[in-house]
Specification:
Length: 518
């Protein structure tokens, strides 16, 4: 018998959100494309300047002064709005959790200018984190124009973030999965539809600026023979352990920078902007987030020793660059480090097992995916992102093996998703900030949840929330004490905006006791 409390959702709602997603995608596509073009133009100018400077060292002092001025200018931007620091992804997650308040217009122009300056100077930072935050604030701005509710605003911010990653890497499906897997950790039909339409629209715009060629196209890739699959678990273990090292070091960079008592925190950028000068003078080919490094690894032969040195060099300066708080991401630096690990692994195999060196590029791809999956703890996003960026689907099985093993390794050592861990350093999650504003949150009931097949009355709910309804498939059910909860349901909860993450944490502890401490 049909539940009298079952309410069918109106299709018009979905169409409306798809339309808003398309609008956000178009705007984000133009903003991020302009961001990428600006970085490309100024980066080329800086590269040419270093080439000229190497033959005219008497101009070194003016360049040092200019670099200090750039560091000071970016520092003042950071001082005026600390939410533009770093990649911006932790800030987006914090905003969606109700833990951080963002002034979208301030972040939009300051992150744009600060990001262009920091990335153009040759620091080992990526464009993807800033692109995601730029997309998120565009979504927030558009939501204000539509006078959206709190719940609708979060959907539009999420869609903008998805569109930002899509436009940054020409990877629309990865942009969608990143929001579902990394930002929300759950599936919502409205978020899915809105974000998907936004990623497609933003990718369509960016393709007009940058063409159809995949961002990291490395040519045809011959599938790794099955008799070499025994190497994949070994690679997964290697990248998992190195990912754990990456997390540990990155999360301690703030403490190490704090020892520079002669500098205020907003001027930490002086350190990498001065240290990058000798790199630009003597090793200009190594400047930037790592895009060119990945392509060079595919075309230039490196010895195992040179690859080991290159990994240490890029690892250390990536940490120095990001730890300073300058606007810039870690996606591309992570991928470049993963590519170096993969090529190193492939070179060792060719020397020890007689592996044909044509398969080295396979390990380059596999290690990129495994390293990113372990650090971010977003395995599906990693698989799809690398596939879209290299433009080849012939290696999905091998990628899946490496990603799974690397994920298990870092999970065994209790490694957290890197952006979640960075967010915890930004906010004190144990503090509850009552804002006096109501908001709706969604909590998924998975198959392993203790809530499955329980009545509403039998669950120990937190006192500061109200279960208003349950979304089941395409329908929404108004709840009462006898309502039975099933796996696959999404709980619709009313609470205070400042308590959203606290409520989610308590519910996670109640419903997934065996994994809540992971």
């Amino acid at each position: 018998m049909k539940n009298v409390y079952e309410i069918k959702r109106l299709d018009g709602t979905k169409i409306s959100f798809i339309g808003k997603g398309l609008l956000i995608g178009v705007v984000v596509g133009f903003v991020v494309s302009l961001f990428r073009l600006s970085i490309s133009f100024f980066s080329h100018t800086v590269f040419e300047w270093y080439h000229y400077l190497s033959g005219h060292l008497f101009l070194l002092l003016p360049w040092v002064i200019f670099s200090l001025l750039v560091a000071y200018f970016i520092g003042k931007l950071i001082q005026s709005d600390p939410n533009i620091k770093g990649s911006g992804i932790p800030q987006v997650e914090g905003q969606l959790r109700g833990q951080i308040t963002i002034n979208w217009l301030s972040v939009l122009w300051k992150k744009f200018i600060g990001g262009v300056l920091a990335l153009s100077m040759g620091l080992f930072l990526g464009r993807e984190g800033p692109s995601i935050q730029l997309g998120a604030v565009v979504g927030q701005g558009i939501s204000e124009k539509f006078k959206a509710t709190k719940a609708e605003t979060k959907i539009l911010i999420s869609s903008g973030a998805s569109a930002g990653l899509s436009a940054a890497f020409n990877a629309p499906i990865a942009g969608l999965l990143f929001t579902l897997e990394e930002v929300h950790h759950s599936f919502s039909p409205l978020v899915l539809l809105t974000a998907f339409s936004a990623t497609l629209a933003s990718n369509f715009v960016s393709l007009h600026f940058f063409g159809l060629k995949p961002v990291l196209y490395i040519g045809a890739i011959k599938a790794l023979p099955l008799h070499y699959y025994w190497t994949l678990p070994l690679l997964g273990i290697l990248v998992g352990l190195l990912a754990l090292m990456y997390q540990k070091v990155l999360l301690h960079m703030g403490q190490w920078y704090s020892k520079l008592t002669i500098l205020p925190s907003y001027l930490y950028g002086i350190v990498p902007l001065i240290l990058v000068i000798p790199i630009g003078l003597f090793l200009p080919q190594f400047l930037g987030g790592g895009h060119d490094i990945i392509l060079d690894l595919n075309t230039i032969s490196f010895s195992a020793t040179s690859l080991f040195i290159l990994f240490l060099f890029r690892f250390i300066f990536s940490m120095i660059s990001y730890g300073s708080g300058l606007p810039g991401g870690i996606f591309l630096p992570i991928l470049s480090l993963g590519a170096i690990i993969g090529v190193f692994f492939g070179v060792i195999l060719t020397q020890s097992t007689g592996l044909d060196d044509i398969y080295i590029k396979n390990f380059l791809i596999l290690a990129m995916a495994g390293y990113f999956a372990a650090i971010s703890k977003a395995p599906l996003t990693a698989m799809v992102l690398i596939t879209e960026m290299v433009g080849s689907f012939s290696h999905l099985m091998a990628i899946g093996v490496v990603v799974l093993i690397s994920y298990v390794v870092i999970d065994f050592f209790n490694g957290k998703p890197i952006y979640e861990a960075l967010l915890e350093k930004l906010v004190h999650t144990e503090d509850i900030d009552i804002k006096g504003k109501k908001t709706i949150i969604e909590f998924p009931v998975l198959v392993e949840s203790t809530f499955d097949d329980q009545q509403v009355r039998d669950i120990n709910w937190p006192k500061d929330m109200l279960l208003t309804s349950i979304r089941r498939g395409e329908s929404e059910i108004l709840t009462h004490g006898d309502t039975l909860i099933h796996a696959g349901d999404t709980l619709i909860i009313l609470t205070d905006e400042g308590m959203t993450q606290y409520i989610k944490d308590v519910l996670a502890e109640e419903s997934y006791p065996s994994t809540s401490n992971k």
